[in-house]
């Protein structure tokens, strides 16, 4: 069957265009990632989910090994410095801790890991190289330890946001500084004080401006020109406009990326959810606390709630939308009655692909799945579509099963016979219908099932004062990396030792 044509709305041309990759054997996408100083909010979750769906679609259309998705981690920023100082911890500690929570959050949202997640602090050399090129070609100048991009030196600056210089000046909060030649000129490099993070450069010890990092990381991992660049609509100006200016002028190219895609806002009472307005809910608190509607929410529920609205439209945040998405998900999962995880390949239905290929029409894709759940003969298709869209926990798919299996066998140092034993149990789970509605974690189930049996045998041995047998079981488990704890009330609990 022929591959359906993918159409995407390109902010650069303000039209829906047919997607033609530079090289179909290597489709390349860059999406601006988080600044790791604080937990991400559910507005930030929107681009994560939208571009994850696009990543999945591209993998389906071009083959997983032919798609590279780069999402950066901004780990140098003045907000990071301020927060680390406020908390009295090192910058590294703060960025590591925040990134760890971020990675757990995106996983819970059902997102695949991007091909690469480069960090800004590991690309300082590339940033310096780009800045040097810009100075050499007359597009940037050094002044007072700063390096600035000379905006009027670029003929078609403003092409993405379609604003004239006058409009940009009127609309932007422009810092007036003595070292700037023009009001719109923006910082590529700035000096660092002793207590601020800094790197040696031809312009003295300093640190990069905000925009240069994305030009550097996309260049390092995707080349001078690539296919798709994405982010939220607020990034069009100035961030993406400035990325284009830096990359095009440094590399002498007309384009940085051929297609620019932007998601709409998640709003609260008509306003963008944002840290600065203080109207935000973190992904973490939605998943792990009962502050919203009196319960915790699985990541897939937020994911479905978001996918139901076209990615370019605004969404108004309500608990009601989550409740509706939750009811849908529960109903759909219940309709999978006879499907066993082994049947779930995650290969989507062609109609769902067609809907998504039309500028990611998630709304239509979701509606299609909804109508399919009413047809008992399409259970496996529904499961595959849900898995494809990231709406079924990964562990219920074939690949998820294999990975969990590897985790289990790696987690415990097991003997051959134990591995065989557990593999058999595992296979039984994978091939019998699982009640997906309950969402019990099979990995945990296997682990505790097996351990509980051993613990019971050991308790019986202790009851009959067979200390040798009791110690043997304890040692055997210890060898697998499990510590037993005999409690005062006669029960025994266990934990995995690190
Ligand atoms: P930031 O941390 O503000 O740089 O945002 C990270 C990503 O989330 C960027 O792609 C933003 O455009 C996007 N974003 C921030 N706030 C929202 C929101 N309320 N709705 C949708 N996307 C957002
Ligand atoms: Zn960026």
TrEMBL record:
Binds 1 zinc ion per subunit. Its cofactor is Zn(2+). Zn(2+) binds at residues 32, 214, 239, 243. A motif ('HIGH' region) lies at residues 34-44. Residues 455-490 form the Cysteinyl-tRNA ligase anticodon binding domain. A motif ('KMSKS' region) lies at residues 272-276. It is found in: Cytoplasm. It catalyses: tRNA(Cys) + L-cysteine + ATP = L-cysteinyl-tRNA(Cys) + AMP + diphosphate. ATP binds at residue 275. Its EC number is 6.1.1.16. One of its GO terms (molecular function) is zinc ion binding. NCBIfam families: cysS. Monomer. This is Cysteine--tRNA ligase. It comes from Methylocystis rosea. The lineage of its organism: Bacteria, Pseudomonadati, Pseudomonadota, Alphaproteobacteria, Hyphomicrobiales.
